[in-house]
Amino acid sequence: VEIGVDVQAYDADLDTFATLTPTANAQTLLESTNFLSMTQDLSVEIGVDVQAYDADLDTFATLTPTANAQTLLESTNFASMAQDLSL
Asked: What does the pLDDT look like over 47-79, one tens digit per residue?
């Protein structure tokens, strides 16, 4: 008997997983072959339930707006922006 060939070598993660009994929903996700299949199984529609990838959003995520910029971003219309800018 050769470990890794004839039998599985001991692995602490496998020991943990052996104590779990996955639900039917978890089993469905585990059987998914790719992320698209998972989103379909979850009935998640890109652009409706989740934000589609956008390079601009990726860029904006790296920014930390100043207090002044946050004030403008919170403005509900151009008139309130003009007022915030004392125009």
From this structure: 888 888 899 999 989 999 899 999 999 999 999
